[in-house]
Structures are given as structure tokens and as C-alpha cells.
């Protein structure tokens, strides 16, 4: 409910729809504390799409889960930073208030819709619950609205399929149900955590198009977590590249393809398979991501970086490269000039 | 496995369960058996008189332990009472104890298992250690001691004692399946759309994790009836003049070399009842869980 957000302390209509500031998330494991997210900052405005890019284990999903408030104690903990919706810091809100914001103001689309849906309840029922619970709708009204939402995500004969269970849907249709669940209450922010990774390429395109349409219709701020550079080029306005728990480069989608300002981004772009390279070996980034349980004071990318020098023993700050662009590399000038 | 189930036009779970169930012969047969047994338990007088001697307490010692004959299809027990009428009347306390105990253990196990598995931390520590204490304690000795100190030995006290020592095994199973379910993506998703802990537990965790406990509880029904007869044998369960299959089987132990019918007829009823409950539990589990339909 938008009125709920407006009534909360710190609300500022001029602030970005969602901003994550210097977020740190730690997990207690058998091998000690792992800081999975180490000072992540990004912001998304209404109607804007931010792609969060990075390899497995870079902290993309953990950041998203921290925003949703589903990083669970006692194992995982947000230790520092702020998550603001229009200026309201979610981390200072009581749990009950945060709970009421989930689904109504911020919603999430999960990677694998089959595991994100309750297997013992029909999908229509699961969507209808949103209306009954958050909006106090009657059973009949909620069911009608649920069918409407299924219709909006273009599920054929929605009224009939609302009674089906998750396992009776195909992968693409199931992800549409996942999207339906996220958009049911018209949230201001949608976080999509690799929504198309589990799908084949033709279905991927349909799902991305659907997400784009929904976003345009409602002016939603969309955070799209992905490691698919093609998807990024298609629909993102801005890109944040994450590596080892922090954002190493942030830029407009066009700029990042034209002139990357961080060696990691450049290496990622170099690793995209292209038709004219047919038959040759794919480029890879040598080495492996760092062990997050043994933090390194310097630049985390140093061991894999071709530009690494003695200066890299100090962690680089986010340098302002250009208006709206930042790079966490001491040598960004060299990188950007190619 | 998942034969393409016809699409149901309703979001309601009930019609689906109904169509799935009536098609399963295991359900139809076991439900019929259980219904008959429950009918015996509720209204034994309607069945006991079928052969003309419906009063289980009309006994003549001259007939002691006589084999079946005209009008007395099951013969007589050692007191000279009609065994058929006694077996029919015996259904009541056996079924009452079995149902009460099963219900009680499942409720306690679900509550404890959910608290431990969902909230983890010190709640889990406390609950799990409590389970360990009960599992480590010799149950039969515990039951004897408690029943000995109680002055009344009726269906309720016996059930209460059986629940007290029966819940920990189920609670441990429940905790395990809750742990498996709690880390599912759909629980995170439910939390992500703003569901509170009570709703998550009732709607998402319990329906998805109760399967193993339900099946185990169904299998336990037979064991409970057997336990009840063991307690009776030790003199701390139901006591004559109470009529129960446990009491009958235990008297039969001393005479079965000479009068085998004393053992056979109550045993047949006991076995069929246990089988009925087990199959019913199994069929219900299959029907309620849409994944294995």
C-alpha cells in the first residue's frame, strides 16, 4: 500500500524508489563468518531497469534477499548499511511494518518458479491469498482478481488454469505464474532474480518482453539480476557489475558495452560467444573468485587482473568516471581508453 | 506417477481430493472397514444381537470356553459369555484409545516439530533435548509407574499415558520434514509476499511436511492397540469388567492351547482394524499430496 510507505518516517518523494547503501551481509558457516555482501550500493528510480550482473557467488542474490528481508537469522545477518524505499530505511522499521511492505511495495520474482510455489496449493489460490491477506478481499473477489492477474501475464484460459497445481504447468507458464504473484498488488519495486535462467531461449524472450511491458505499464522500478549479457543489452537502462560482494562498476547500459571502465567488466564482455569467433576457444577469465571467508584487504579482483600492480594492495574506492558512472579500479583511465 | 489429471475448474482443493479418492480401491475398501469398525464402536448393540445373544454380560459359567455352536458363532469365553457379543463391544475402547492417542500424539508432534524446525535456535535446542529425554526414558516402565499412581484406569488415562510417551518419535520426524521444507524457495517466496510466521506455518509448512508424520501415525494405530493390551496384561491398563480386545487377548493367552477360538476371533478383528487404518492413512496421504497423484 503506497499510503503505508508515505506514512513512514523519512519518506521523501524526491528520493530514488529503491536505494541500497553500503550494505553488508554476513553468514555464519562452519568455516567462520563469510561476508557475502561487502559494501554494495545501487539505486533505481521509478520506471527504470537496473541490471545487476556478476558471476555465481558475487552476492547479487544475497543483496536482493536482504532487500526483501528474507535473509534469515541466525545464519545470515545484515550487519551494516541501509536499504531505502523513497528514503525510508527498511532496516530500522519494525518487522511487522516490513512484512506489510513485502508483496505490496517490493516484490520478488524467483529463479525457479517450481520451487518458489507451494506444491500443495492451486496457483489461483496462492495468488488469491495475496488479495485476501493484504487487501482484505473476500474469497470470491480474491479469486476473480487472481484470474485477472493470470490473464495479465497471458496465461491462456486463466480461469480454468487457476485451479491447477504448480507441477501441471510448463516451465515458461510457471514463471508467468511467478511473475503474476509478484505483480498482483502492483508493487513499486520488483526484484527479478535470474527470472529466465531456468528457461529455454525462446521462452526467455517471451518472459523478458512480458516483464518489460508490465514495467512500462506501471512505472515499476525493476532490479534484474542476471548473468546473461544479452538480456542486459535488451532491456536494462543501467548496469551494476558485482564482483566478490561489491559493485565494481556502475554505468548506463550503452556505456558499459561501448567503453567498460573496469577490467572485470571488460573481461566479461570479452567472454561473450560471438558468431565470428566460431570454432575458436571461448575467452575465459583466468582463476576463480576469491574465498569470501578469508577477506583480502586489497582489490578482490587483483589475482585475476591483467592490470594488477602494487597499488592494488589497497582496496579501490568507487571512482566517479563520468556523471552517473563509477568504477572501483585504480587504473580505470587505462581500462576506459582500451 | 502424475497421470494427466483433468483440469479442475475450481480453485477449491476438495473436489480434486474427492475424485482422486473414489477412484482408489485401497481407499474405498479401507474406508469401508474403518467405517464399519467405527459403527461397531459407536453402536455395538445394533450388531451384537445378530445371532440372538446380544448381551455381552449375560454369562453362564457352565458354557466356559466352549467352541462355536448354533447362535454363538464365536463360541464362549472363559466366563461363559458370548464371545461374538464381547468382540463387538470390545471395538469401542480399542478404537477410542487408538483414535484419542493418535490424535493427541500427532497434535503434540506437529506443534513441537514446527516450533523446533521453523524457529531453530534455542527453541530447537529445548524441544530437541526434551524429545531426547523422553526417547531415552524406558517408556513401558514410565507408563507402568504413572498408571500405577493413577487411581482411575479408563480410556482417557490410558490414552494420556500413551500420548505422553508416543509423541517424541513423531515430533522428531516432524522436525526433520519441517527442516527440509523451511529452506524451500516457496517459503522464502511466501515471506517475500508478506506472509507472517503463523500463516507460513499453517498454509505452507504444515501441509508440505505432515505427510511422513501422517503415514507414521496411521501405521502406529495398530501398535497403540497392541500397547493398550500389553498394559492391560500388566494389570495397569483397562481392567475387567471393561470389555476390550486387549483384555480378551490377554485372557486368551492362558487358554489358547485348548480353546483356540478365544485367540482367533479378537485377533481377526484387531488385524482387520489395524490394516484398515493403515491403508486409510496411506490412501489419504496419496490423495492430499498433489505431487504423487
From TrEMBL, chain A:
Entry keyword annotation includes NADP: no
Annotated membrane topology: Peripheral membrane protein
All residue ranges annotated as the ABC transporter domain in the record: 18-269
SUPFAM superfamilies: P-loop containing nucleoside triphosphate hydrolases
Entry's localization field: Cell membrane
Keywords: ATP-binding, Cell membrane, Membrane, Nucleotide-binding, Transport
PROSITE patterns: ABC_TRANSPORTER_1 (PS00211), ABC_TRANSPORTER_2 (PS50893)
GO MF annotation list: ATP binding; ATP hydrolysis activity
Single GO cellular component term: plasma membrane
Pfam families linked: ABC_tran, oligo_HPY
GO biological process assignments: peptide transport
Family that this chain belongs to: Belongs to the ABC transporter superfamily.
Protein name in the entry: Oligopeptide/dipeptide ABC transporter ATP-binding protein
